Amino acid sequence: MKIKNIMLASLIGAGLTYSCGGNSAKQEDGNQEKGVLEQVSESAEAIKGLSKLEEYSKELESRMNELKGMSPVSNDVFKKVLPETFQELKRTSLQVGEMSALNLASGKAEYKNEDQSKSIVIDIMDGAGEGGASIVSLMFMGMMTDKEEITDTGFEKTMDINGTKTMVKEHNDQGVKDSEIQWIYNKRFVVKLEGRGYSLDELTAAFKGLDLVALK
Predict the structure, then answer these.
(1) Residue 119's beta-bridge partner residues?
(2) How confident is the model at residue 216 (pLDDT cuts 50, 70, 90)?
(3) pLDDT at 61
(4) Cα distances (Å, whole numbers) of residue 143 to 136, 160, 164, 199, 210
(5) 96 beta partners
(6) DSSP readout, 120-172?
(7) Average pLDDT over residues 184-209
(8) List of residues 6+ apart from 37 with CB closer than 8 A
(9) 92 three-class SS
(10) Could you give the 3-state DSSP secondary structure of residue 120?
(11) 166, 142 contact by CB (below 8 A)
(12) How far apart are CA 116 and CA 201, in angstroms?
């Protein structure tokens, strides 16, 4: 709230400076007048952004409290969403309950093709409980802003896929592409899809074919 008040005071101050400048403002270059107006506009936009942030924070806090009161799903639930085959790849490993000592429910499976040139890893963590809620909270915060980073070997950014906000990565190593998609399912489960030998477009197709209905 203090931050919002400071920004509001800055907006009012900028407005007063502009209006009280009176005669001197008329004598100065028009570009300076335009600069003041731009400052006022930027301050107004900043306040709008702060209001959205406050609204989002309240919604996030409410959801975190709900998650803290929930019980993590069983290992059997993870087994249902991690089938023996996925995208014509065979499951080569399955791990469930690896983080149970920390009171976190999780499941992870790896899938490979016959010559092992391509593989997909599905990693799921339940956000229920005290520890899980904290991790989900960090994920929510990471997805609040639209960001993008581009390097010589790939990129990392936030983007929407079929209406779902995701964090994606793609890395190119000597013509071989690896990619990753991470998101929050049902405002509870942190899901990560890793594709070795998969471009982001190819992994996106796998993302659309992933059945997570059993996660409730």
Answers:
(1) 112, 196
(2) confident
(3) 85
(4) 11, 11, 11, 22, 21
(5) 107
(6) EEEEEEE--HHHHHHHHHHHHHHTSS--EEEETTEEEEEEEETTEEEEEEEEE
(7) 96
(8) 18
(9) strand
(10) strand
(11) no
(12) 20
Long-range contacts of 130-136 (CB under 8 A, 24+ apart): 130/68, 130/103, 131/102, 131/103, 131/104, 132/67, 132/72, 132/103, 132/104, 132/105, 133/64, 133/67, 133/68, 134/64, 135/104, 135/190, 136/63, 136/64, 136/67, 136/184, 136/187, 136/188, 136/190
In this structure, the chain runs to a length of 216
**119-143 per-position pLDDT tens digit:** 999 999 999 998 899 899 888 888 8
Report the C-alpha gap between 76 and 83 in whole angstroms: 11
> Region 183-196: what's the mean pLDDT?
96
* Neighbour tally for 166: CB within 10 Å: 20
